[in-house]
Amino acid sequence: MNQNKFTRRDFLKMMAASAAFATATKIFPGILFAQNEQNQMLTQTLNDANLTAQDVAWHKAPCRFCGVGCGLLIGIAEGRAVAVKGDPASPVNKGLCCVKGYHSVMALYGQDRLTTAYVRRDGQLVPTSIDEALDIVADKMKETIQAHGKDSVSIYGSGQWTIPDGYVANKLFKGAIGTNNVEANARLCMASAVTGFITSFGADEPMGCYDDIDYADVFVLWGNNMAEMHPVLFSRMLDQRLQRKHVKILDIATRSTRTSLAANRSYIFNPQTDLAIANAICYEIIHNGWTHRTFVAKHCTFKQGLTNPGYGLEDNYVFNDEVSDISFDQFKAYLKDYTPEKVAELSGISARDIRYIASLYGDPNLKVTSFWCMGVNQHTRGTWMNNLIYNIHLLVGKISTPGNSPFSLTGQPSACGTVREVGTLTHKLPYGTVDNEAARQKAAEIWQVPVENIPPKPTYHTVEMFRALDRGDIRFMWIQVTNPMVSMPKLKRYRDGSQKEGRFIVVSEVYPTPTTDIADVILPSAMWIEREGLFGNSERRTQHWDQLINPPGEAMSDTLQLIEVARRMGYGDLFAWDETTHIEDIWNEYIRFHEGAKHGMAPYAELRQNPGLRWPYVNGQETRWRYNAEHDPAAANDEDNIFNFYGKPNGKAWIFFRPYEPAPEEPNEEYPFWLCTGRVVEHWHTGSMTRRIPVLHQAVPQAYAELHPDDAKKLDIRHGDLIRLVTPRGSIEIPASVGQRGRPAAQQVFVPFFDESLLINELTLDAFCPISKEPDYKKCAVRVEKV
Amino acid sequence: MNNNNTHRSRLGMIIITIILMGALVYLVGTSLQKEQQTADIANLTRYDTPSQPITNDPFLNYGQQINQLTSAPISGTARTLDAYYSRRAYAGAPPIIPHPITDAYSFGGNTCLQCHQNGDYTPEFQAYAPIVPHPELINCRQCHVPVTTDELFTLIDWQPLPHPEINQSALPGSPPPIPHGRQMRDNCIACHASPATADEIRLTHPERSSCLQCHVYIETNQEWIR
Amino acid sequence: MIVKSYLIYPLPQQKSSLQDKLQQFPQCDVIPATNQDLLVLVTATDNQTDDETLYTQIKHLPQIQVITLISGHNDHIIPLQTTH
């Protein structure tokens, strides 16, 4: 980092010089300046000085960053991306972006872009032609399968995969090679949302959409700093509050943030007690007679699962939930432990406040939308927490209608489109799960492989996959579009494991990262608008973009890398697409999985023309509210019911009793603070793209540890002081942040995880939700020491 | 008799109380109504759908939040167009925040807009605050971020869309066209006639309020061919 | 920090000697035009006083025919860690 320090001073000098160049050009047209390395950049600006705003062609593309899926217009001039505007035609953001979106194209031009492949030879990464590198990857994969079996090779991607990337990866590994070792970073991000939807409704992804924002009267944010993490949607909410004065925003969180400051009410609860709060809201709804009796009788059924399932801290942990029927009265009886008074004591939110929140959910004249993201999902009881929010909405019948929506947000641009819909998780196929024979038949037919190729048993979820790599059960891992050596919890174990003798790691990347540091082969990837692709956002909207610029050097899209390796392994027939039309061909093959009213996808030609379309796409129409016969053709039924939760066999959604259970590791004498990790608005995920954007890096150049002012005073720590954070897993020294943008509750610490030189995940715990297998990055015990 | 008196004075008390309560209800009612009216008026001058691209005439937003329209250079630290441009990564990018932030634990409406809504003089910086052309968007730091370090993470090979040439009048003296996009910047007055305006783009005639009557957006540089 | 750029017209035949002179100031970057008698000078100084001193020194160099200021930047950039 230090050898190429380009300072702000240099930047200002560059700007000043280019002004002089421009003036000189006006005086002496055709003037030339001496070129050397130092002022090459300056003269470049001169040569482009004749470019005007009208020379720029604007093309649509979804934003590269979060799961909101804003529509951007990218300005292209002379083969380069030079500017960004919000796409006024996109119903998602209506022309407004956030600071990451506006500067997103700058992430294409970091000077350390990987433009050639690298292969590790005698311990050193040596530049190699991409053809040779792809040969090596294919040979190594074949060799590993021969020596250790099919289940010794694996692929690990993310919700940043485009839909074609994920589809080809799934087809290659599950269909051609015959292993279910396909996982994605989305497991660390929204797996609990998936299992929440599946257990409550039998079908994944939200029933509502962003249009709910325009109708809702009350917004309840569960552990979700939307002002920073989903700012564009947050601004849409603020906009509604400005126009309709009665609109309220409630923030229920463990830390006070910009969202809390903007909200009408802010409630700070003790970590993990959200489970009890949600149950207390249900208690209040039932005991005040706010239950929507006909809705519940017609469309819901009551269930319970196993309790005390553990936390997955040990290798080879297995848990299978057993669901049984209960009656409404039993459900009501279970809730007796969750009176507002009892929960107030546990959670730190007063009984009066709990009653107030419940009364808003219960008021039949108010439309309520709940939003949540990582606070609920990255939770050792994440699936339960998702179930509990659905319980609240189902009890009062506020679901699947405009403005009434329990809405699970996502963090990655195609977490829904690629991971959830294409099914790049070990147990999933594009349609159905691997343990379902009909689903395997369908996949085999579309993929044109023998059905025996697809193993009927899921293998490893993400944490277990890295544990298997450590143990040696997995020998080969291909990592694409993600950075696990920053993002895995309890990082040291998994980093050490990946570097053991006999492990082979291939990394497809655009920049050097801590993950490429451990790679045996690095493949340079074409990024975002350097290739054609499709993303699917949180509201079931699929968005297409064309290739707008050329990738640098030998960089190649992840889709083509996978196809090239597949061909080298002898599966060419299955991937016989032409390079010019392969994205369209893949899309046409893929959407055969989703044919029908429940999940129909829009045709390629429509997607190219529109700023995204929401599935189910039936008879040329998007579906905005699923399970609602007035909006969703699949919900039509014989009994003239408006609602039909057709994911479940009898069309009834499940209301689950899920109790409060403590976190696996809570503050104690030795480690007296809670540690919570998260993001800031400027940086996205592990920062490998956003940190290369000058505006964003210069705003937040490094991670920090937020402390409550009282704790800081007690420990004699001032803003900017270096402090040491210690957990049984490790320790880091990091600057303290006091009185800045966020304020944790007393005895809590918050650290953003984007900084690869201050790796907070060395400290986090790899406990996960037993149902979703999603780790909890928000809670573990930590000691704070002044350095 | 005594009893009667007590009754009478009680009745009197009750009547007085009722009258007082009536008056109170009236007062509260009318003042609420007034508030409602002013709120409605305030609403009228705001955009109905702020996050949408605004294609209506900037005339509507004329000087709505500006205390001081000006065509004359103003005292205090003057800014040049180059200074404004140096805060943007490319033409049309949201500018960075070039000054220290006194209270980071805050939200736009309570801090940033205190100075940037009306463009008042700030003694701290000895300058007039530039006026935000979109004051209805209050999550300021969604798009505007401060600078806390000089260094970069890595070098970047970035060639921005250059800032447009100003004064592209077709004939000497004819009204120059608008060389930038309208998105988020449809309130002409905010940037062209406030005390913080750079001299190069300062309006000479702030008293004329229908900007689009004479100034048109440049949409293309191609000539019309029949 | 103050960053300024200037266009400098040297006296006839003095371009390269002027360039050498200017390059002796550590605060200066010089980019000569290759097909005209013109130099672009970029200066970066820490404060107003330094900037004025430097400008006085440059202004009195005998090889200069005309020097014109093109753009200037004076910032109130805050030190690291003031705020996030």
Molecular structure report:
- The complex is a heterotrimer of chains A (787), B (226) and C (84).
- Chain A is α/β, with parallel strands linked by helices and 787 residues long.
- Chain A is 32% helix and 18% strand.
- Chain A is built from 27 helices and 29 strands.
- In chain A, α5 packs parallel to α23, α5 crosses α24 and α10 packs across α14.
- Chain A is globular.
- In chain B, a hairpin with a 4-residue loop joins β1 and β2.
- By secondary structure, chain C is an alpha+beta fold.
- The longest helix of chain C has 12 residues.
- Chains in contact: A-B, A-C, B-C.
- At the A-B interface, α1, α2, β3, α8 and α9 of A face loops of B.
Describe the structure using short key phrases.
heterotrimer, B: 226 residues, 26% helix, C: 84 residues, alpha+beta, four-stranded antiparallel beta sheet, 38% strand
Topology, please?
The complex is a heterotrimer of chains A (787), B (226) and C (84).
Chain A: H1 8-27, H2 37-47, E1 57-62, E2 71-77, E3 80-86, H3 99-102, E4 117-121, E5 124-128, H4 130-148, E6 153-157, H5 163-177, E7 182-184, H6 191-201, E8 218-222, H7 226-229, H8 231-243, E9 248-253, E10 255-256, H9 258-262, E11 265-268, H10 274-287, H11 293-299, E12 300-304, E13 324-325, H12 328-334, H13 340-347, H14 351-362, E14 368-372, H15 374-377, H16 382-395, E15 405-408, H17 415-423, H18 437-447, H19 462-471, E16 476-480, H20 484-487, H21 491-498, E17 504-509, H22 514-517, E18 521-524, E19 533-536, E20 541-545, H23 558-568, H24 582-590, H25 604-609, E21 613-614, E22 653-657, E23 673-678, H26 694-699, E24 705-707, H27 709-714, E25 722-727, E26 730-738, E27 743-744, E28 748-752, E29 780-786
Chain B: H1 2-45, H2 81-85, H3 112-116, E1 121-122, E2 127-128, H4 188-192
Antiparallel strand pairs in B: 1-2
Chain C: E1 2-10, H1 15-23, E2 28-32, E3 39-45, H2 48-59, E4 64-74
Antiparallel strand pairs in C: 1-3, 1-4, 2-3
